[in-house]
Fold this sequence. Notes:
Layout: E1 3-8, H1 16-29, E2 34-38, H2 48-58, E3 61-65, E4 67-68, E5 74-75, H3 77-88, E6 93-98, E7 111-114, H4 122-140, H5 157-162, E8 175-176, H6 178-187, E9 190-194, H7 204-215, E10 219-225, H8 228-243, H9 248-254, E11 255-260, E12 272-275, E13 284-287, H10 299-313, E14 337-339, H11 342-364, H12 369-379
Parallel strand pairs: 1-2, 1-3, 3-6, 6-7, 9-10, 10-11
Antiparallel strand pairs: 4-5, 8-14, 9-12, 12-13, 13-14
Helix pairs in contact: 1-4, 11-12
Amino acid sequence: MKKKCFVCMPLIDDLRAVYYEAIFREIDALGIECECAKADDQRQPGTINDKIVQYLLNADLVIAVICDPREGNCINPNVMYELGIAHSFRKPTILIADDKPLPIDIRSAEAIQLDFSRLKDEARRSAFLSDLREQIKRSLRAPGIFDDREKPIPANPITAQLSNTRIFIEDLTWLRSYSDVLKLEREAHTIWEITRDLYWPAERLFFASIKAAIRDERKHCFMVPEAEGIRRKVEAIKKQLRKDKIADAEIDGFLRFVEIDPKYFDLWPISIVLYDADLATSRGGIICEPMTSEVGHDAIDDKIRKRFVAHVNSGGSLDDFCVDFDWIERRGETTFDISLDGRTVDSLATSFARIWNEKILDEAQKMTGEERAALLNTWLIGG
């Protein structure tokens, strides 16, 4: 596959030799299929800024010539802006500059620095270009430059702050962080969860969420495997809710667990949650942290839990609890829930309702009178 090298530089005659006799020549000498380009190489519709951003997005390597000989070897502001974009996109970058001190913001970036006054001196021009080619050649051999086997995160002032983050989570709108899911839980009228393990009975934030749902008359429906260990966890959850002054009538009216054959969970290592699946609008769903074998094991999740405990201990409640991590701190998130598309939610909701109603009807057969009517009126989905 053809590689792409984009060169950010002042588009002036004084630097044509830097591009054609040094940069382009050394890229060509690599012996790989590589397209070397600068912003004025192709005439196409659109503003110059749009084209430059597209070039930078698609580049495998960015070479930035930041000096501008038109004004006494000063720094070119346009190239500096483009260099910032390249750093933000985490592109491998080779910086070419004059031999004067670099601006403080980029002093940590590796750079080729030469006396550009030699370029304007006919007697020293050839030696300058030879030196530049040699340094470019060495830089092109560095690990991670055009090397598909090694993909280190390029070191620059931005990636140094981003630590080991390899992607921008904000661009992956189908990933949900723990704080996102907490918001979904608070906004949904009904929550249907299919889970093989009730992993959260000892978590204060979960109980606060359940208590808030019961108070707001919002239903939680849990489909779990038939197992003695699960029954003990269900009883522990109800016991804790009673301890927290939630009446049995409220628990039975807004929280229910339906047991199904454990064989259905043999290939089901993760939980799925459906939000408002019984409504025609606003329905959604998530797969709970499929990238980990145990849901909830994440440093950011733990920070949220600890913040909530500290918040409650200082007299606060779930109503006024706010998760507010700064952008850098949120880079510590390592596991995410994945949003389900609408068709998948519809399919799962149909299956969930069918199985759920079968179990409710089976249970209702064992009851009579008001108890039976209450079960069917309260927990029969669509009934």
